[in-house]
UniProtKB/TrEMBL annotation:
A GO molecular-function annotation: isomerase activity
Domain RNA-binding S4: 2-60
Family: Belongs to the pseudouridine synthase RsuA family.
UniProt protein name: Pseudouridine synthase
NCBIfam families on file: pseudouridine synthase
SUPFAM superfamilies membership: Alpha-L RNA-binding motif, Pseudouridine synthase
Keyword annotations: Isomerase, RNA-binding
EC top class named in words: isomerase
Species, as recorded: Ruminococcoides intestinale
Length: 239
């Protein structure tokens, strides 16, 4: 059992004070009855809580799939640019959300956003080797040498070594490749291609582990992950 104001506040972006006002105004029902006491003890898993006419679907953590647009940064705050947190729809917003890993500002595609630190860590920890798949459009053609260099493991000019990566060339367009990496080094895909003399002109992430970007999700849109989606992140990784 927890305080009503604490439970409601944990599911929203606004603070405890605002929630207390809301409760006192009579906008909250518990099991069908108006409850004006912020400190009323309720069980979020059993009691039915309705806020402003909408059922509170309580969940300890939230897991969001975003089709990240170019132009927004993968951060919680930024002085100059909009962040991925800024563009989450209101009904999915709550305190403590952060992106799981980073995509460059100009990179599009699959980004997970959560408030569950353990889940994020199990994806981003270098020890876990979760695969990330990207579609890269390039300023030149992929050759067999490029594919081999990726497979052998690219070494950056500063001596940083990348693990073996899989590069598949689009059959109809040699300037497009699908790259699978199991690390998350800064600008990794762009730098790997640069080492092979190719510039990435467009980059989109399409999967994390066995979880693929939902093709119905337009650029900039978000959806909640199902339990199965969450599990699929850890399925089918190469290493
Ligand atoms: N590699 C890059 O170079 N950029 C990204 O955004 C992700 C992977």
């Amino acid at each position: 059992m927890e305080r009503l104001d604490k439970i409601i506040s944990s599911q929203r972006a606004d603070g405890r004070k605002e929630v207390q006002k809301l409760i006192k105004s009579g906008a909250v029902l518990v099991n069908g009855k108006i409850c004006k006491k912020p400190d009323a003890k309720v069980d979020p898993d059993k009691d039915e809580i309705v806020v402003d006419g909408q059922a509170l679907n309580y969940s300890k953590y939230i897991y969001i799939m975003m089709n990240k647009p170019a132009g927004v940064v993968s951060a919680t705050e930024d002085r100059q640019f909009k962040t991925v947190i800024d563009i989450i729809p209101e009904d999915m917003k709550r305190k403590g959300l952060f992106p799981v890993g980073r995509l460059d500002r100009d990179t599009e595609g699959l980004l997970l956003i959560t408030d569950d630190g353990d889940f994020a860590h199990s994806i981003t920890s270098p020890k876990k080797h979760v695969d990330k798949k990207y579609v890269a459009k390039l300023d030149g053609e992929i050759t067999e040498d490029t594919v081999k260099a990726f497979s052998d493991g690219i070494e950056f000019s500063d001596g940083t070594k990348c693990r073996s990566a899989v590069l598949e060339c689009d059959k109809n367009d040699k300037k497009t490749g699908i790259v699978t990496i199991c690390e998350g080094k800064y600008h990794q895909v762009k730098k790997m291609f640069l080492c092979c003399g190719l510039k990435v002109v467009h980059l989109q992430r399409i999967s994390i582990g066995g979880l693929y970007l939902d093709s119905n999700l337009h650029i900039g849109e978000c959806k909640l992950l199902t339990d199965l989606d969450k599990k699929s992140v850890f399925i089918g990784n190469i290493h």
